[in-house]
Amino acid sequence: xxxxxxxxxxxxxxxxxxxxxxxxxxxxxxxxxxxxxxxxxxxxxxxxxxxxxxxxxxxxxxxxxxxxxxxxxxxxxxxxxxxxxxxxxxxxxxxxxxxxxxxxxxxxxxxxxxxxxxxxxxxxxxxxxxxxxxxxxxx
Length: 139
Prior knowledge:
Layout: E1 2-7, H1 15-38, E2 42-47, H2 51-56, H3 59-70, E3 73-74, E4 81-82, H4 86-100, E5 105-107, H5 113-129
Parallel strand pairs: 1-2, 2-5
Antiparallel strand pairs: 3-4
Helix pairs in contact: 1-4
C-alpha cells in the first residue's frame, strides 16, 4: 500500500526542488502503473487542493504543473538540463488524472492536523484489515 500527497504548498516550486518534482512525477507514473498491473493499493492525500484540480490539472495546481512541465529538468545521470518530451508530459497528465479520480483523503481548510492524520491512519487501517484471511481445511 502506498500513499501519495498532493498539496498547493508543495506545488510552489523553486529551482532547488524543481528537479525533485520531475523525479516525483516519474515515481507517480510508476506507482500508477504498478497499481494497475500488480494491484497495489494507492491512497492519495489531497492537502489544501481539490482532487478535481489534480485530475484535470486546473486551478493553482494546474498552473504550477504547467510551469513545471514547460521548464527544463536536470538529467539525473549527467546533470545536463533537458526538456520534458511530449510522451512524458502525456504520461504525467494521465497519471495525475487517474490518481485524482481515486478515492482518498481530502483535507481542505483544516484547523486540526492531528485529526487529519488520524483520519488517514483510520483509512489505511481499514484497508489493511480487508486483507483476506487463510482458513485451513483441517482445524
